[in-house]
Amino acid sequence: MGHVDGAEQRLQGIRRVDLRGVELGGRGWEEARAAVAASMQALGAVVLVVQDALDPDLRRDLFGRAVPEFFALPLDAKRSLVSGPMPPSTGTSGRCPKRRRTRACAPGRPPTPAPSGTSATSSGRMEAILRSVSAFAANMLGLERKVGAMVLESLGVGQGSVASHLDSLNYSVRLSRYGVSEAGDGMLMKPHRDCTVLSVVVQHDVEGLEVQAQDGSWLAVAPIPDTVAVIAGELLAVVTNGRVPACLHRVSAPRGSERLSAQFVSKPKDGNTVRPLDELVDADHPPLYKPCDFDEYVRFRFAGDGQKLTDPLEAFCGVAWGP
Ligand SMILES: O=C(O)CCC(=O)C(=O)O
Ligand SMILES: [Fe+2]
After folding, report:
1. In this protein, which residues make up the domain named Fe2OG dioxygenase (predicted)?
2. SS3 helix, strand, coil % of the chain, rounded to 5?
3. What one-character-per-residue DSSP string does 95-121 give?
4. 262 close to 175: Cβ distance less than 8 angstroms
5. Residue 173, SS3?
């Protein structure tokens, strides 16, 4: 049955909610839903205990083999495994100098053929990487949908709108490998908000993820096996008409070890425009966001004027309410 861990765990980071054995509408659902929604509304983040979603064998296979093998592949081979254009940070980048990362296949989506000249051993290895990433994605999909449903249901959104919101999403996996920080006191990733609906973050072994609390302090998310962090992105702020804030988070460099993480992220399907759900707009809650064309927003945020702004979402589709 779902339960919320006590105050002592807040001291180590953010509150944890136990979702083991909690199924949609079943025993413990309402209690867990309230706890998840409260944390998401306060912080835009929650930590979940989820043994079934990431069993030890899958974790070992993913981080012990598939992720290191993925990053060891030549660029062409990596490219054939990702579902869209490679993000600029696939190589080292100015913004996150110690980090290499990429997206991997979307669940259920076949990889593009291996580049010509790929040996049988390499292509066998690539298939094995895809299998591990797909197993991870398949397990995370149910979890991410569960959290999305919990948040919207507890805000009073009806079943039909929850279902159509969930159907409007696309999912993908992002793998990150951060190089060793010698100093141990720097940042691996600066404070930022994700341009997603939700991200489920799995840290492997080495800590670093921190989320900002309402008082401005940073709460560490410990890399405990059987736990994942769920982070609200900017598009969930739009969908919920600001009830769930996009979580400001960062990755610190705590000690001299390489750090690996995997994220399962949801975004609007190609071409979808995101707007506040009807049930969350009324006289007391005027719309805070105009409809947000996702593709245009991505261009604005990463290639246009939005790059320099601290709150590009607000600049792109925020409704300014005068006095
Ligand atoms: O590696 C992590 O723990 C989180 C990475 C992150 O915040 C991101 O890729 O946006
Ligand atoms: Fe992030």
Report:
1. 169-268
2. 40, 25, 40
3. SSTTEEEEEEPPTTPPPPPPPTT--HH
4. yes
5. strand
Provide the residues around ligand 2 (an ion) whose CB is within 5 A. 194
Predicted local confidence at residue 323, as pLDDT: 44
CA atoms within 13 A on the CB side of 67: 27
284: exposed, middle or buried (C-beta count within 10 Å: 0-12, 13-18, 19+)? exposed
Strand stretches in 186-287, DSSP E: 187-192, 198-204, 209-212, 218-220, 227-232, 249-252, 259-268, 273-274
3-class DSSP state of 318: strand
In this prediction, residues 31-35 reach a mean pLDDT of 97
Q: What spacing in Å lies between the alpha carbon of 184 and ligand 2's midpoint?
A: 20
For the question of an ipTM over 0.95, the answer is yes
Of the listed ligands, the closest to the CA of 174 is: 1
Ligand nearest to the CA of 192: 2
Percent of the chain clearing pLDDT 70 (strictly above) = 81
Segment 134-155, tens digit of pLDDT: 899 989 999 999 999 999 999 9
Mean pLDDT confidence for 199-214: 94
Task: Report residue 236 as tokens.
Answer: 């969930």
Distances (CA, A) of 289 to 27, 123, 192, 270: 36, 46, 20, 20
Cα separation, 4 vs 35, whole angstroms? 7
